[in-house]
Amino acid sequence: MNKQGETLDFYFSQKRNKHAAYQFLKRCLRPYKQDKQPYTLNSDKHSSYAHPIARLKKEGRLREDVAHRQVKYLNNGIESDHTPIKKLIVATGGIKVRKRAWSTLEGFESLRMLNKGQFDSWLRTDNPKTRIWERSAFMNRLFNVEYVDL
User: What is the C-alpha separation between 21 and 15, in angstroms, rounded?
Assistant: First the structure.
């Protein structure tokens, strides 16, 4: 999540370790040239972040002057953003088949991003009165769902 509260990406892994952190950070940084990358990366105090950040710097995928701040409470916004997803997973009975977990989480996160307004730049109008209808129409087009007005 960036400082505006927008979800940059998400990563699903069986374990929270340095390999998973490396894959996630590499994936998040991929679309950004080095001059557009953040100056500061905030994370909680989990030990899995320092090695991947150093590795990405060494590989030239992350700017050399990036600061890594490990402060337990700076990450609270990100962690609290996961809460609605966790509630959805519990409400659906949990994830029973690991192979389907990615597509399920991808759908949940896409809808959350849509509801947070992150796709509004793709909509045809900025009128707040029609924004909900536009978001619904966008999702219908995205998932190839036909809408019939009765």
Answer: 10
Q: How many residues does the chain have?
A: 150
Position 88, amino acid: L
CA-closest candidate to residue 89, choices 111, 110, 104: 104
Distances (CA, A) of 38 to 32, 35, 41, 64, 114: 9, 8, 7, 11, 24
For 30, the token pair is 């991929």
Domain boundary assignment for the chain = 6-81
* Tens-digit pLDDT profile for residues 99-120: 777 777 777 777 777 777 766 6
